[in-house]
Amino acid sequence: MANIASTTASAGTEVTARALREAVFAGLITLGLFVLFVGLKTDQNIRNELILTQRWGLLAIFVIIAMVGRFLIVAYVQPRLVQRKAAKAAAEDVAKEESFFSRNFSKIAIAALILYPPVILALTGVQGSLKWVDNFGIQILIYVMLAWGLNIVVGLAGLLDLGYVAFYAVGAYSYALLSTYLGLSFWVLLPVAGLLAACWGVVLGFPVLRLRGDYLAIVTLAFGEIIRLVLINWTEVTKGTFGVSGIAKATLFGIKFDASKDGFAAMMGLPISSAYYKIFLFYLILGLALLTAFVTIRLRRMPIGRAWEALREDEIACRSLGINTVTTKLTAFATGAMFGGFAGSFFAVRQGFVSPESFIFLESAVILAIVVLGGMGSLTGIAIAAVVMIGGTEILRELSFLKMIFGPNFTPELYRMLIFGLAMVVVMVWKPRGFVGSREPTAFLRERRAVSGSFTKEGHG
Amino acid sequence: MEYFVQQLVNGLTLGSIYGMIAIGYTMVYGIIGMINFAHGDIFMLGGFAALIVFLLLTSFIAGVPVVLALLLMIIVAMLAASLWNWTIERVAYRPLRGSFRLAPLITAIGMSIVLSNFVQVTQGPRNKPIPPLVSSVYDIFDIAVSLKQIIIIIITAILLSSFWYIVNKTPLGRAQRATEQDRKMAALLGVDVDRTISVTFIMGAALAAVAGTMYLMYYGVVVFTDGFVPGVKAFTAAVLGGIGSLPGAVLGGLMIGLIESLWSAYFTIDYKDVATFSILAIVLIFKPSGILGRPEVEKV
Amino acid sequence: MAIDTMTSTMTKDPILKVEHLSMRFGGLMAINDFSFEAYRGDITALIGPNGAGKTTVFNCITGFYKPTMGMITMKQKSGQEFLLERLPDFEITKHAKVARTFQNIRMFSGLTVLENLLVAQHNKLMLASGYTILGLLGFPAYRQASREAIDVARHWLERASLIDRADDPAGDLPYGAQRRLEIARAMCTGPELLCLDEPAAGLNPRESLALNELLQNIRRDTGTSILLIEHDMSVVMEISDHVVVLEYGQKISDGNPDFVKNDPRVIAAYLGVEDEEVEEVIEQIEEIEGEQGGTKQ
Fold first, then answer.
1. Among A234, A457, B218, B278, which residue's CB has the most CB atoms within a 10 Å radius?
2. Is the backbone of residue C99 left (phi > 0), alpha (psi -120 to 50) or beta?
3. How far does C125 lie from chain A, in Å, by closest CA?
4. pTM, to two decimals
């Protein structure tokens, strides 16, 4: 007995000693990383010359946080995790009955989304609802739709596309330019924008068919940049960096959302407010996103969808089964691009203004990150990832109470992308397969069982 | 003719910088098969480190010789960038090694966002101009060659030859090549794979930091977004030359530098990046593994 | 010497005719002026030592390589002929009805076993779904076709004794089952000629026996001709009607299993002996075979 106690005690001191060592190491690394960038700050003085400001206190705080954090992790969190893992392994594998909530997750989510605007309206009033419907609802749904569109290319067909934003741009500019120059309505131009984007998908897809993996990635990235650069430089048509403004709004069966006599508010006898237009836009993007989901689910059960997934798993085997991989890849590009185009024209109608600034590489990266973080191929996972990542960064705009802690000069927006990037890294390391790693089979003989993520491949192209 | 040669010199200078960054991409890709998207931002970080060292030197010690200042800037920038890249590999890439291929790509993009925003937050979002370090211009056969350009080309040549030596002639280089060929087998034969990969990241970062210092010296300004465009160009260079091939990275870098300066000189400067990316696409259509890349054999 | 085998095959109808096939990789002549015929309804085996070029021949037939020279003619039951060296790989399966498996198994490991077989019926289902458009709109014709496709898949799963694992991911199957699945998947494309690249590689004796049975059933019930590459002589000698031997890219023997088994050139190629010693080797082999025959009985 005494023997055991002494060994555990010595193990305890050993852990503490190791934790101390690692803490000192982490402190040194942090010091090395931050000494130049946190300890010193470059500022312009009145004569516009650079001078250095010293911030050694801040640097000390960083180092101390790193040391204490590392110590706690090594000394307490890691042993706890090891114990939990052991306990989990020892416990019997009990087949869990899926709860009502998780079985009907998508139905509940759709119902919640449909009820969202009226509930917000009731809770916050007409003007208060603007922020919640627009910044959270519409913003997140746009990304959900874009990520679902990209999911067809990356998640199903396994083709790594780093320039998806190009199709978003094509859709947005199609609507912006055609409505400005030809005066066509949103409902006419929505399918046109989708078709044009799909055509671009084929045009850009064709030359890159032979490329695989990272070569495909860089060429799609290059195409994304080419489209943006053309939008910037083709000033006669696109007005360059100034962008196209004053884009016509969408109408609901010909009813306009404005202050006129036959506008929506007047007809319904409601006070005039832009909130109604936002709510209309919310339902519009919700409908578009659900259309994307519906088509994706349908396509997965069709030969073309199965061929996409088979292409992701093994291209050579596909060819040996008589599948034309060229048209299969092109349809994946075109379908994905089409939804990007729809989302783009929605974006144009929502903002009333488009400029090349909105279609930078970072957007492609964010959309791709949502697809991968959600779990490639899983619509639910992707929607969750979009809510977490986009909703999370939008919430940072709201944290004005932090000003009281860090002083009035503190702007949470500044940290938005920093935290977004960190979250990408943390989530990926925590769940490399994304939130929903398993895949739903598209057909079954006896029972539908999800396929574990460890079997699915991620494609070579 | 003089104009053309002049543009050639400008293109070579720019190409040297791209080439040095491209080597980092190509080495990391060669050894673990991932696109290190954060590499461009490591380059930017190196530039900032050099900037801060420069300001330290000028504000605390008056009259430091330029050669010494440059040397110190390069050394500190190399150390800082290497430490950052080493840490990033440990924290964001190593836990994902051997898992899903796209996972490290996403963490790399995440790290790229983190790095540029970190510099924005800690150093401010404005352009950081410095007075010119070296300003002499020589007239060689009617062609104006600035000292800056000579320094950049010479430093690039020295670094590349020492790199070539390390990779081809030293045990470290052998370990790298072995790991590149077959990681599992190399580990079985006693190569410390983790260490080799770490060293590769450090080497890549060191070169990127030198490129960052040169960039700062050449243009006299650096800003937190500077990682992206040179990063993408250098990555394009690496792919153009054949990713995984060191001479390919240098060749690709020089080609892109030349395309850019010649296109801007003879056509319109607005579309120079479009030209670069179009040439990349065209080359890859005809040579899908880049100019010097090993053709990918499709094993059936 | 080979006269009786020649006359016996003269009457047969060739399904695949390979003429003067040559394939060069850089300076290496992998296949050199190789000709053979496979007959309808036969199981034809292509054997040879490692590196003889068997898989290269397969890749030329199935369109994964374009041969440097030569002509490959596939003649269907209907009499229609296809020049395989001119078709892109997927059309060889789609139109010429030649299906293949791979030496290192190529599963869609993240799809279920059933889905693997549905992917193989892609072209048929594509047509039924009106190239996706009608199917997307929910036309009943596609639903009918997809039910039929599942029936076809069920049939082949039963034949390959995989029916119990139909809803499991293909990557989860043991090796032998994956081999059978690959064959079932190839059969779902509805081929007239089935090309199998080392189907028995890595199988244990029991699995090997099950494989023989599966192949013989396929031939008997569907009339599909089979061309296979094999190392395992017990498989080759037991089930094949016709054996072609390849060494260093050239044909060294062609005939029925007994003929090939006793061809000194084949023995020399397999055992690697000098020409003078061949006779001696043959005697030894006969002795060994006699003993094995004794123990079998």
1. B218
2. beta
3. 6
4. 0.86
